[in-house]
Write a structure and sequence with these properties.
13% strand; 51% helix; 6-stranded parallel β-sheet
Length: 1043
């Protein structure tokens, strides 16, 4: 058997899920007890990870149970046998029994998230904690916190002390030239009570009253005023000494006298302190001319001025610290009130914030004897497996330690001893803002050991995920990165963990693009979108599917930009942005129907409903139709649009009423995914039975930016994910645009610093800034600590982004003007330069003067299904023309553009099939693929295929589907107006004559001619010879029109 306490340092793709599942299976099968799995607790960070591990364990047990598994054992079977050192046959017998028993007692199969384990633990102690056992779990604190702040503000005028604090807070903001409205500041402040990083400090504040804080502020302001007097005294002394010389001394740019004047005017912050200090350090405070003509005077004066400046500098830093302390006092004084009100609201609603789970356990349960905790939960765990340990918070680990300690240290014999396996990677820690503490994992990897038994540390050395060229690139790049770190602790993490062994997957490709757009700065986002779109389409052209590709981005704004671009260009896409419930017009109709239950006269709600149904009504005069519809009584309105009595609608319970309308209008069939998930949200919200429509509308307004459809992963669509969401996942192709992230992004970070006033010590929360570095020893420590954390956290983002790809990785960034290591693109450029590869890069032009420098590592390959020769027919001699294949959108279950009608779907399907047919002999194969890969109903699929056959065989068209021509299907072309045009088909003869073909599935329109003429003009501008331009109308009969 393996040691009892192990830690696996597992870099990206190193098989940690395999290792965890293998260890679980070995532990489960080591005993002859059929229910031994009840003694094992496996904890993961996400629900997806826990489901993946459960699935791996169950499928392995099933596999082990098969007779043929012994003849051809899987790798995990071999691993379990090696660990247990018993025959395959014995493992097979045990696996069969264990699987049967486990499936009959599935609730005791304990593979869950840490939050889920905490939830169950609190439920077990509900009676002791005096909370209802059926409390509602609240994942998002926003609604409760908003209500908390509203109640706090409502207390103005009722509670004198709180009123004084709130008014003082508003006055401070006004004095600094900011808005007096403090509601936003309070809401931001309230987030602290949900952040475990601040838990212990906030708990210490609970002993102080608002009055105590206000008294402390008075003392701080006294000290601040005293310090101002001391600064003014030194300023006056300097000015007197300068004036006493009676000479023009020649100060550089009059900098020092100007600095003194600013201080005299009480400008204690924006006063050029740093630049004055540099001038003193370089002996450049006086010009060379001034120095040569005043040597004797300056030799006596300058040491005195320097001494005074040093005193002023130290006092200014202290003043800035005291100002930060005085500004933080009032908000902190309200924090305990905010926490108290929040708990009151949760108790009233029988709700508990998930962020409070660990606090409750730490305060109320952790101190109980382990046997008593086990008795309450009904489980007695002896073996613990914890995944993604680098994202475990201090509180979570603190809460688990007593239970684990009991399991490891209380066994009377070696056989009775429990075990612990921790698996993590500090390079993949992205959740420090949510309480994660990678430093704990790092310290456990080094000297720390909270248990009395020895630990064993193992590195998982091999990368099983990525092809070798990607692994090799990442090894070299992150080894280089490690040498650029400012903090040696961070360097050690990457030096010891980023050099992975290669696997058996040959090949792999990495592309790093730098867009030099110095003359087009306002179009920088557009360049990222164009290059991303180009990459996706080239990959489709090489035979990859949309679902093979994932675009990873830093934030939701970038995600929205990418999704919007892909949808506009008819690329199927899956992301939280495209799946938001609020983006469904049918869902918005249902929301407005809920609103009409509370306010029947709401005309805005009526407008949304009218707009949804107006296509079906097809009025001749739209304006008049709106006017008349809005003037109807509510009963008439419901009868006209919904064929339902309004009285009947309002008398039914909310969910039943909305459900009835949904069924009668068949909204869930027209827009199944969005409506279906909305109805689930509605059902869940009203399930407790004590909620009103007003509560739901408030819930919707608060959460509409988050509620989305949850999809299966087999839809043939590009995924667009934030890097945080992509963590733990892998994709054949990964595209990382906007790769310009700054290593240090402090945002509104806060830091606790000791405040010593009148011999009283307290810790106050101040905004993080450069000033705290100079506020004293504690300030310097805090500043260095946060800078170290930021350096690691931001490089971890890049590490996670670059380790998701299996076959190909594309990085798209701007060309960095500087050669410093201040952002990801600068680091990438420096790496390429220092590798000696930059000089060989020749910039390529697109869009006039925009340059793209492209570095590649490895070689691209064709996708597994489609292997065809690249067509270069659209190349003008001596010049590369930007051209992209742009297949029409594949129909997926209404997830990325949910409101198309049947005609649009038919047209989209027909264009999709025709875009795949270059030559007539390909028709049968492409028709079969079309049937398999699109979700259009079977009848329309068959009609589309029959039409395609008629087009290909048509007497006037069949030659254009023969090998006599080179063929280009649906290529993106940028015309002189910087528009993107996409001809359906261009055929090129041996004489280089180009014939343009465009398919039309709708009725004839004059704009059809205009469109194809635009295609002609674009090709002529490129210097290409045009033959014919042909429009093909396919319904109701095939009609060929030469434009």
């Amino acid at each position: 058997m393996e040691p009892n306490y192990e830690i696996y340092n597992a870099s990206a793709g190193s098989g940690k899920t395999f290792a965890l599942a293998s260890r679980y299976l070995a532990t489960c099968l080591a005993s002859n007890e059929e229910d031994f799995y009840r003694r094992i607790l496996a904890l993961t960070f996400t629900n997806k990870a826990s489901e993946e591990m459960k699935s791996r364990i169950l499928s392995s047990l099933k596999e082990f149970s098969k007779k043929e598994s012994i003849q051809n054992p899987t790798e995990i079977f071999k691993s379990v046998k090696e660990e247990l050192n018993i025959p395959f046959k014995e493992i097979q017998i045990r696996a069969k029994k264990r699987l049967q028993h486990l499936l009959h007692n599935y609730s005791f199969f304990q593979v869950s998230t840490l939050d889920s384990f905490s939830h169950n633990l609190i439920k077990s102690f509900a009676q002791d904690l005096k909370i209802v056992s059926d409390f509602q779990l609240v994942l998002d604190p926003e609604t409760i916190l908003n209500e908390t702040i509203d109640r706090l503000l409502e207390s103005v005028g009722e509670n004198k002390t709180i009123t004084e604090a709130l008014v003082g807070f508003a006055n401070t903001k006004v004095a600094e030239g900011k808005s007096w409205d403090i509601s936003f500041d309070l809401k931001e402040l309230s987030q602290l009570i949900t952040n475990e990083n601040h838990y212990h400090k906030i708990k210490e504040l609970e002993t102080k009253t608002v009055k105590d804080f206000l008294l402390e502020k008075k003392e701080i302001l006294k000290s601040k005023k005293k310090l101002e007097a001391e600064i003014m005294k030194e300023v006056s002394l300097c000015q007197e000494r300068i004036n006493a010389t009676g000479r023009e001394l020649g100060f550089s740019r009059n900098s020092f006298p100007g600095f003194l004047i600013k201080l005299k005017n009480k400008e204690f912050q924006n006063n050029n302190l740093a630049s004055i200090k540099k001038l003193f350090q370089k002996d450049a405070i006086i010009t060379k001319k001034g120095t040569s003509s005043n040597q004797e005077i300056l030799s006596e004066l300058m040491p005195k001025l320097l001494a005074s400046f040093n005193k002023i500098e130290q006092k200014l830093y202290k003043w800035q610290a005291l100002k930060a302390f005085s500004n933080s006092i009032v908000p902190l004084s309200l924090l305990t009130q905010i926490k108290r009100i929040s708990k009151e609201i949760q108790k009233e609603k029988s709700e508990i914030l998930i962020s409070e789970f660990n606090q409750i356990i730490n305060e109320e349960i952790k101190g109980q004897p382990a046997p008593y905790i086990y008795e309450k939960t009904g489980n007695r765990f002896k073996h613990y497996l914890i995944d993604e340990f680098q994202d475990t918070s201090m509180l979570q680990w603190s809460n688990l330690t007593p239970l684990i300690s009991h399991a490891l240290e209380s066994g009377e014999s070696e056989k009775d001893q429990g075990s612990l396996l921790l698996v993590g990677d500090p390079k993949q820690s992205l959740y420090r803002w949510r309480g994660a503490d990678p430093d704990k994992f790092i310290s456990l990897l080094n000297e720390e050991n909270p248990f009395t038994i020895p630990k064993s540390i193992k590195n998982l050395p091999k990368n099983y995920r990525s092809c070798n060229e990607i692994v090799s690139f990442n090894n070299k790049f992150f080894e280089y990165v490690a040498k650029q770190f400012e903090f040696k602790e961070n360097a050690q993490i990457y030096l010891s963990g980023a050099n992975q062994e290669l696997n058996e997957k040959k090949g792999g490709y990495v592309s790093v693009e730098f867009i030099n757009h110095s003359t087009y700065k306002s179009f920088s986002e557009e360049h990222f979108l164009i290059r991303t779109l180009k990459t996706i389409n080239e990959n489709i052209y090489r035979g990859f599917k949309y679902l093979d590709q994932c675009v990873v981005v830093r934030n939701n704004k970038q995600q929205a930009l990418i999704v919007d671009c892909l949808i506009k260009h008819k690329i199927p896409v899956v992301s939280s942005e495209s799946l938001f419930l609020k983006n469904s017009s049918a869902v918005n109709v249902l929301i407005e129907l809920v609103r009409l239950r509370t306010d029947p006269k709401n005309l805005k709600s009526r407008k949304v409903i009218i707009k949804y149904f107006i296509k079906d009504k097809a009025p001749k005069d739209v304006f008049d139709f709106f006017k008349k519809s809005l003037s109807l009584s509510i009963e008439e309105f419901f009868n006209n649009f919904l064929e339902l009595s309004f009285q009947e609608f309002v008398q039914a319970p909310t969910y039943d009423a909305i459900s009835k309308i949904n069924r009668s209008l068949q909204l869930d069939q027209k827009e199944d995914a969005h409506v279906h998930f909305f109805m689930e949200e509605l059902f869940t919200f009203f399930l407790p039975g004590n909620r009103r429509e007003e509560d739901f509308l408030l819930f919707w307004e608060t959460n509409m930016e988050k509620l989305s459809v949850i999809t299966n992963e087999e839809i043939n669509a590009v995924q667009v994910l934030t890097i945080h969401k992509a963590k733990g996942l892998e994709f054949p192709i990964v595209i990382y645009p906007f790769a310009d992230s700054k290593p240090y992004i402090s945002n509104s970070k806060k830091v606790w610093l000791p405040c010593k006033v009148n011999k009283q010590n307290s810790e106050l929360l101040v905004s993080f800034s450069k000033a705290i570095e100079n506020s004293g020893e504690e300030g310097e420590k805090a500043y260095r600590r946060i800078k170290k954390e930021e350096e690691l956290d931001n490089m971890n983002v890049l590490y996670v982004a670059l380790t998701r790809a299996i076959k190909e990785m594309y990085i798209i960034s701007t060309y960095p003007e500087k050669t410093l290591n201040n952002s990801h693109n600068e680091i990438l450029k420096r790496f390429i330069q220092d590798s000696g590869k930059w000089e060989g890069l020749t910039p390529r032009f697109y869009r006039s003067s925009v340059q793209v420098y492209k570095y590649t590592y490895g070689e691209r390959v064709w996708g597994e299904k489609t292997k065809r020769k690249r067509n270069t027919a659209l190349k003008k001699d001596g010049e590369g023309i930007s051209k992209l294949q742009l297949p029409k959108k594949i129909k997926t279950p209404n997830l990325y553009k949910p409101f198309e009608n049947n005609e649009t779907l038919f047209g989209t399907g027909f264009h999709e099939l025709m875009s795949k047919i270059e030559y007539s002999f390909q028709l049968e194969k492409q028709a079969k693929a079309f049937m398999e890969n699109t979700n259009i109903n079977r009848k329309e699929q068959q009609e589309i295929i029959e039409l395609a056959k008629k087009v290909v065989a048509h007497k006037d068209l069949k030659e254009y589907f023969s090998k006599k021509y080179d063929v280009i299907c649906e290529k993106e072309i940028y015309n002189q107006k910087k528009e993107i045009i996409v001809p359906d088909r261009i055929v090129v003869s041996k004489e280089k004559t180009h014939t343009i073909i465009d398919y039309k599935t709708g009725e004839k329109r004059t704009s059809d001619i205009t469109q194809i003429k635009k295609y002609e003009d674009a090709l002529k501008t490129m210097g290409l010879k045009i033959g014919k331009s042909i429009l093909i109308y396919v319904r109701p009969l095939i009609e060929v029109v030469e434009a």
